[in-house]
Amino acid sequence: MGNAAPAFSGTTLDGSSVSLAAFQGHPVVVNFWASWCTPCRDEFPVLKDKLAAHASDGLVVLGVLYKDQADLAKSFTTDFGATWPTVTDPNGTIADSYRIAAPPQTFFIDKSGVIRAVQIGQMSADVFETQYAKIRP
Q: Among 52, 73, 127, 129, which is least packed by CB within 10 angstroms?
């Protein structure tokens, strides 16, 4: 925490290109997840609700797929109504740069690109708000 978020770019589940740098100037939540991760199933509705609740802040949520198959992840995002992009990480380079041990793990990055909070493990709505307050514009 307190350091610049490691830069990354990649291909999303829908085949688009995305980079973290494109969201400079916005509060960003980077969530590492997998379709096989039970806590991720419970956390996705929280992310969906909070993205909508903080839309006026310019909040961006970016998913990073952790050790999972893209086809399973696509079904997962459809089932949970996730509207944010998820970047695939087939070689684990993004996860390595963020030192991910297991999903879910979430990084709260301020508008200048600095990590201000890290949530290891599943997030409740209250925990999200506590962490988001550290990057809210």
A: 52
Residue 38 CA to residue 42 CA, distance in Å, equals 7
Half-sphere exposure of 120 (CA within 13 A, CB side): 6
Nearest to 85 by CA among 131, 135, 137, 28: 28
Position 1 scores a pLDDT of: 82
Which amino acid is it at 62?
L
**pTM here?**
0.96
25-132: CATH architecture: 3-Layer(aba) Sandwich (3.40)
11 has which bridge partners?
A: 17
Which has the closest alpha carbon to 1: 120, 126, 94? 120
pLDDT digits (tens, 9 = 90+) for 33-73: 999 999 999 999 999 999 999 999 999 999 999 999 999 99
Supply the pLDDT for residue 28: 98
